[in-house]
Design goal:
The protein is of the alpha+beta class. The protein folds into 5 domains: 6-105, Rossmann fold; 134-203, Dna Ligase, domain 1 (2-Layer Sandwich); 207-333, D-amino Acid Aminotransferase, Chain A, domain 1, CATH 3.30.470; 335-454, D-amino Acid Aminotransferase, Chain A, domain 1 (2-Layer Sandwich), CATH 3.30.470; 458-502. The protein has 17 helices and 20 strands.
């Protein structure tokens, strides 16, 4: 199979830049696509060629599979890397790319289809004796029958959309009397979000941890795992902080999870980079959750502890090359933590806070990596995910990585919008995170907006007290006749105070 010469990145922002940088190091020319909102984006300026694919909404630009493929043909592109999100897990897109004679830097359409359905994925891995959470074996919409099954499984149970993720179509049901209402909501939300109202039921694992395993497979049947990532600090069922390795896995559990992840990949003849996700309980029992058939947002922490460039490996695999290392060649070196810097307001339920980056200064120094797609003065578009950057800290051990992350967060200067940096700094110092004794309910258990409210500096308090005394004296004097000069002094005092207070 000939080497890739020109690669189109069917994505935007930091992941487009990240893929292009590895491609450039391999001597591969790159093509960027962009919407009208991203005309001046960094990935557009970095690439060798760029083409506008439509208006800002993603369904009129980044999701136009046929248009993207047509541009590939026009520009002589011989491979497409989908990044993550958008079309990255769209089996029809992968199939169309392949049928057009263009290489898809990712898995087969068949693997994407199987693992894109949580129920189909469970059926595929069943013969490999992989631990599964107790639940229904197939999609269910009959509420009375579903309610009966929920009772047999035992509450609390989890209703989940079969066709999607990101917390959509997901409902935790604690009591039988709440089941029907939550079932209706889950089906409705799944239908709205994915066009498929199919849901399934499984036992809800209390105090769960979300731990995933990175895998790589080639076209020759070789599959390896690159250890785990701990992704339990989440808001709205979506990750905010990830680290590698996990602070709690024993070597024995790590080995067992790695072997299970490889078997999940074998179940769908997987090649490319993929991630097998598990739910882990407080006794370190693990259960297969799903497989993401793409590069993950949090892949940098794996790269930091293994020294493997996952994007380059994806390209080598797409070129038909066998894996360049075996399982025995891989080992964990050090510790890495990633925080996702979102344009969100943690004091307002993490709602997006779109605006202009009036100040944007990245942290630097030993062990710090910043993957982003913005610079000072740019706007955060309202049309896409509000992530500004991925901030990664690496150290010889977990404590060093955590202290470096704190230092990096303190150095990161962003004004003009609210961000999650303050929340991430709170997590780094929290006893539960420091000890490693946390789960997916970290935000629910420990975070309230009040913890991010900055205390009034002592100097300001003293100044306010002095002002109060001054104003009291001026009020007393006001009862006596005053000259225009007196009034000027009072007015000037207030003006000076305002200047000092908000400077």
């Amino acid at each position: 199979m000939p080497a890739i010469e020109k690669l189109l990145v069917a994505n935007r922002g930091e992941i487009a830049l990240r893929v292009m940088r590895s491609a450039r190091e391999m001597g591969i020319k790159t093509v960027a696509i962009y919407s009208e909102a991203d005309r001046n984006a960094l990935h557009v300026r970095y690439t060798d060629e760029a083409v506008c694919v439509g208006p800002p909404p993603s369904n009129q630009s980044y999701l136009l599979a046929d248009k993207i493929i047509a541009e590939c043909k026009r520009l002589g592109v011989d491979a497409i890397h989908p990044g993550y999100g958008f079309l990255s897990e769209n089996a029809d897109f992968a199939r169309k790319v392949t049928e057009a004679g263009i290489r898809f830097v990712g898995p087969s359409p068949e693997a994407i289809e199987v693992m894109g359905s949580k129920l189909a994925a469970k059926q595929a891995v069943a013969e490999y004796d992989i631990p599964l959470v107790p639940g229904t074996a197939e999609a269910i919409t009959d509420i009375p029958a579903a309610k009966k099954m929920a009772g047999e499984i035992g509450y609390p149970i989890l209703i989940k959309a079969s066709a999607g993720g990101g917390g959509k179509g997901m409902r935790i049901v604690e009591r039988e009397e709440d089941f029907e209402e939550q079932m209706d909501r889950a089906v409705s939300e799944a239908q709205s979000a994915f066009g498929d109202g199919a849901v399934f039921i499984e036992k809800f694992i209390t105090s769960p941890r979300h731990i995933e395993i990175q895998v790589l497979g080639d076209h020759h049947g070789n599959i390896v795992h690159l250890f785990e990532r701990e992704c339990s600090v989440q808001r709205r069922h979506q990750k905010v902080i990830e680290e590698a390795p996990s602070a709690v896995l024993t070597p024995e559990v790590r080995k067992a999870m790695g072997e299970a992840a490889i078997n999940v990949a074998r179940a769908c003849s997987y090649y490319g980079a993929g991630t097998v996700e598990f739910i882990v309980d407080h006794q370190l029992n693990f259960y297969f959750l799903e497989m993401n058939t793409r590069l993950q947002v949090e892949h940098p922490v794996t790269e930091q502890i293994t020294g493997v460039d996952l994007v380059k490996e994806m390209i080598h695999i797409a070129q038909g090359e066998p894996l360049r290392f075996g399982q025995e060649d891989l080992e964990i070196q050090g510790h890495a933590i990633e925080v996702r810097v979102y344009a969100e307001d943690p004091t307002n339920n993490f709602l997006p806070d779109i605006g202009k980056l009036q100040t944007y200064i990245r942290p630097q120094g030993p062990g710090i990596r910043v993957d982003d797609g913005f610079e000072q003065g740019m706007d955060i578009p309202i049309y896409y995910d509000p992530m500004i950057a991925k901030l990664v800290a690496f150290g010889d051990n977990r404590d060093e990585a955590r202290e470096r992350m704190k230092r990096a967060i303190d150095e990161y200067e962003i004004t003009g919008i609210a961000t999650t940096l303050g929340f991430c700094r709170f997590v780094m110092d929290h006893e539960a995170f420091v000890s490693g004794n946390f789960d997916t309910k970290f935000v629910e258990k420990y975070f309230t907006p009040d913890v991010l409210k900055a205390p009034v500096p002592e100097a300001i308090e003293h100044l306010a007290a002095a002002l109060a005394v001054q104003l009291l004296e001026e009020k007393k004097q006001a009862s006596a006749p005053t000259t225009s000069a007196d009034q000027s002094v009072t007015s000037g005092s207030m003006k000076n105070w305002k200047q000092r207070r908000w400077a």
